[in-house]
């Protein structure tokens, strides 16, 4: 059974401010929770409607019913389990190799998908502007499908960091150089911009190489690509040339 205090705490973790105060976040679904349990993330408590997760010590596992799960879940159709984890200490940024930088990404699904892509393409470091959606937002955690455990994500003053880096800085623009005809290095920072407005003007000034993904459609009417889709294409090209 889940107590009123536990429901109150978990419900508060829907909000970024409360996640920061408690240094806790939650994840839902067997796959995501299993990935987190097998990583360096520390479990605070697990709530499940099934008699599973037997490897988790009994004092940190509570069997609940579906009605109780609905009270704490962020999903319209709750899964069978929810787990609360402690936020790990933020790691230092490794300023080498390929890095993805996110300039004001607001959609949780986009951030989660981008982290999965980085995991797939072996990108270890993602740096985010402070305006980018919180990595511990429940929808982001869900969308990463466990990749949150394998990609180092840092929230920083993006402009200051980019102004100091010695790595080449790549940005995607409609008027950039065709990425399919570009010599791409093995090291660099790839900036992906806001869903509606693209890369901000202050960050654009720091970009050293402007890239574009050309449109091949006959009518050339599509205005833009979804930012996660664009990230997939760009990372694929960087890795193909490495």
Tally of extended strands? 10
Multimer state: single chain
Helix content: 25-40%
Arrangement of strands in the largest sheet:
7-6-5-9-8-10
Distance between the termini: 53 Å
Total of helices? 9
Q: So what's the overall shape?
A: elongated
**Beta-strand percentage range:** 15-25%
Helix-strand category: alpha/beta
| Poorly predicted parts | none
Radius of gyration: 20 Å
Q: What is the H/E order?
A: HHEHEEHEEHEHEHEEHEH
Q: What is the arithmetic mean of pLDDT? A: 92
- Largest sheet entry: 6 strands, parallel
Notes on the protein architecture:
The protein is an alpha/beta fold and 242 residues long. It has nine helices and ten strands. It has helices at 4-12, 16-22, 30-37, 66-72, 108-120, 138-144, 158-164, 201-204, 227-240, and strands at residues 24-28, 43-48, 61-63, 81-86, 98-103, 125-129, 152-156, 169-178, 188-193, 209-212. The longest helix has 14 residues, at 227-240. The N and C termini lie far apart (53 Å). The model has no long low-confidence stretch (mean pLDDT 92).
What is this entry, summarized?
Helices cover 31% and strands 23% of the residues. The protein is an alpha/beta fold.
